[in-house]
Design brief:
Distance between the termini: 35 Å
Largest sheet: 2 strands, antiparallel
Number of helices: 1
Strand order of the largest sheet: 1-2
Number of strands: 4
Strand content: 25-35%
């Protein structure tokens, strides 16, 4: 089973569409969020930046 990861988070203006999506199993989806990894969708597929803590976070209100 796969889960859809929003490459650009919906709360940051990302849409739910194929060009903003990466399919991940539940384990890797949670890992991406826990480590704060970034992805980019390119013509060749999804490219991952494995540098921790690069994913944008919501501003604390």
């Amino acid at each position: 089973m796969c889960e859809v990861h929003h490459v650009n988070p919906w709360w940051a203006g990302g849409t739910t569409c194929l060009i903003n999506s990466a399919m991940l199993c539940a384990f890797h989806h949670h890992l991406v969020h826990r480590l704060g990894l970034l992805a980019a969708v390119t013509a060749a597929g999804v490219c991952w930046d494995l540098t921790p803590d690069r994913m944008p976070t919501r501003d604390a209100a």
